[in-house]
Write a structure and sequence with these properties.
This protein has 211 residues and is mostly helical. It has one domain (24-206). The chain is built from 9 helices and no strands. The protein has helices at 3-18, 23-60, 62-68, 71-93, 102-105, 109-121, 124-132, 145-179, 182-208. It is globular and about 60 Å long. The two termini are 31 Å apart.
């Protein structure tokens, strides 16, 4: 396999993982619903920043540490699930999706950015990806280890931006329609909250059972 085919295969694997509903996707949707497109795009930026940290950690050998201390993975699974369940519960309890959730709507977009980055950093899927898949695409025959890590990191960041950015724009566009229909807005808030809680429950189940 040549280098370009190698990168295309990595892209397809990353795309397949990102398009699956999960913690990051649900947080972007929740941010767009509560704060509009701008908040959603800041959430996307936070997710991408978290992804960059994952790539850097993987390149620096955090993956090896997690292999040596596998219990850390389970701790991250449980911590991530608790955080996301808390956000989902806030949405489920809301009577209106607009302006009632300071923890998600965030007066400052940078708070949304920081929460999104934390969500990504607590996402166990990312650590499992860095352990199981990412190292397989770092090959000596393709040159500098760090240049390869940067190239793979760019693929991850661009894919996250494309998928989550489109979702943020689409959800933000629907926000005005829902603002005029409080019942539909509440139903959507609770649907997204349910998605977050289900994702948290599945994540907690993964953390409870040995990997």
């Amino acid at each position: 396999m040549d280098h370009y085919a190698h990168l295309w295969l990595f892209f397809l694997m990353v795309l397949g993982i990102i398009v699956l509903p999960g913690m990051d996707m649900a947080f972007v949707m929740a941010s767009s619903l509560t704060g509009g497109r701008r908040s959603g795009l800041f959430a996307v930026g936070g997710i991408v920043a978290g992804g960059v940290c994952h790539v850097a950690a993987g390149a620096l050998g955090l993956g090896l540490l997690l292999q040596l201390v596998p219990g850390m993975v389970n701790v991250m699974l449980l911590a991530g699930s608790a955080y996301i369940a808390w956000i989902g519960g806030s949405l489920m309890r809301s009577t209106s999706v607009f302006g009632t959730l300071p923890s998600i709507s965030a007066p400052s977009p940078w708070r949304t950015f920081r929460q999104a980055a934390l969500t990504c950093l607590l996402n166990p899927k990312a650590y499992l990806f860095m352990l199981a898949i990412f190292p397989q695409f770092l090959r000596r025959e393709y040159g500098s280890w760090w240049l390869q890590a940067v190239a793979l990191g760019l693929i991850i960041a661009l894919t996250q931006t494309g998928v989550y950015g489109s979702l943020a724009l689409a959800t933000g566009s629907a926000r005005q329609w829902m603002a005029e229909r409080p019942t539909a807005a509440t139903a959507m808030a609770r649907a997204v909250g349910s998605m977050l809680i289900l994702a948290a429950a599945f994540t907690a189940w993964q953390g409870w059972h040995p990997l």
